[in-house]
Specification:
Blueprint lengths: L2 H13 L4 H10 L4 E5 L1 H8 L6 E7 L3 H9 L3 E4 L5 E4 L7 E6 L13 H5 L10 E3 L5 E2 L4 H7 L1 E2 L11 E3 L2 E4 H15 L3 E2 L1 H9 L7 H7 L8 H11 L11
Length: 247
């Protein structure tokens, strides 16, 4: 599937999405607002997987807060994990938009203000695809479409030493979160783990000690692929410890 096909399917599905009319009405009233769809919704389209129950909307531009406040008054909002809201047209609706201001989405030690730069810091390439809702243009800085075509898990970032814990009250590190997410999505989406990512997963099996912490703040990770990774490490290892890959 290519970028044009992904965009076409995404627009078709969005037209059926609850609250889509309200979203577009407010977008027309805030011409400076940048609105991108990214993450699992596009990834699952590219992989031919069942669609997720949410659509991640990444927002940029001067009127982000005004747009969010107006949208919140025209539906039902609940807090999301990134400091903003999940929005749906009514409390009974099970599908929702995940509203994520680009400047507040922390995936690295610093803030980002452009979608392309932000995408390069997403955890793995299949997630790093964005659709500009105004122009229909697909942004794919990490080769995510090709990774989806190959059904391949390829991490973009690893456990950079600059990464602090996810938040001051949470000892889960960014590297550990990416480790669990990599294994989880490799299993859930039936992705082959490419060699460099596999070496990094092998080298950082100590993150397993943070499983309970990860599950308490994120979700119960599917670690069914861990046995294969560990087996691979045993087959290749001659007692030498694998080197941790840094990006």
């Amino acid at each position: 599937m290519n970028a044009t096909e992904i965009a076409t399917i995404a627009y078709t599905l969005l037209r059926r999405w609850p609250g889509n009319v309200t979203l577009w009405q407010l977008m027309q009233e805030h011409n400076d607002l940048q609105v991108y769809v990214a993450g699992g919704f596009l990834r699952n389209i590219a992989l031919g997987q069942r669609l997720s129950k949410d659509i991640d909307l990444f927002l940029g531009g001067p009127s982000v807060e005004q747009f969010l406040n107006r949208l919140s008054r025209r539906g039902h909002v609940t807090p999301n994990a990134y400091g903003k809201w999940n929005w749906r047209p009514s409390a009974k609706c099970t599908q929702y938009f995940d509203l994520l201001p680009i400047r507040d989405f922390r995936v690295a030690p610093r803030r980002f203000f452009a979608i392309t730069e932000l995408l390069t810091h997403f955890d793995f390439s299949c997630n790093s695809i964005a659709l500009d809702l105004r122009t229909g243009r697909i942004t794919d800085p990490c080769g995510g479409i090709e990774s989806c075509r190959r059904r391949e898990l390829k991490m973009n970032r690893y456990d950079n030493p600059e990464y602090r814990p996810v938040d001051p009250a949470n000892p889960l590190t960014e590297g550990a979160a990416r480790w669990f997410r990599g294994l989880h999505y490799a299993a859930q989406l039936n992705l082959q783990i490419e060699p460099r990512t596999r070496r990094w997963l092998i080298a950082n099996q100590h993150y397993l000690s943070m499983k309970e912490i990860f599950a308490s703040v994120q979700y119960e990770p599917d670690l069914s692929r861990l046995a294969d990774v560990a087996k691979d490490a045993s087959a290749k290892g001659s007692g030498r410890k694998a080197k941790c890959i840094r990006s």
